[in-house]
């Protein structure tokens, strides 16, 4: 039996939202890297946090 789908909705608590972003950010960057390697594709990922900080990934 698989997991059920989780309803996606905005996290209202700012602290919890920042914690969730921090935990998921590295996973998202890793997925972008894996996609570029597996598909031999050029991938660019730009992320801005709620605090305005920039995170980027680019394959070449």
Automatic annotation (TrEMBL):
Protein name listed in UniProt: MADS-box domain-containing protein
Domain MADS-box: 1-60
Domain of life, source organism: Eukaryota
GO aspect biological process, one term: positive regulation of transcription by RNA polymerase II
Regions crossing the membrane: none
Lineage, highest ranks first: Eukaryota, Viridiplantae, Streptophyta, Embryophyta, Tracheophyta
GO terms for cellular component: nucleus
Keyword Cytoplasm assigned: no
PROSITE patterns (UniProt xref): MADS_BOX_1 (PS00350), MADS_BOX_2 (PS50066)
Record SMART domains: MADS (SM00432)
Single annotated GO MF: protein dimerization activity
Locations listed in the record: Nucleus
Keywords linked to the UniProt accession: DNA-binding, Nucleus, Transcription, Transcription regulation
InterPro entries assigned to the protein according to its UniProt record, in alphabetical order: MADS-box/MEF2_TF (IPR050142), MEF2-like_N (IPR033896), TF_MADSbox (IPR002100), TF_MADSbox_sf (IPR036879)
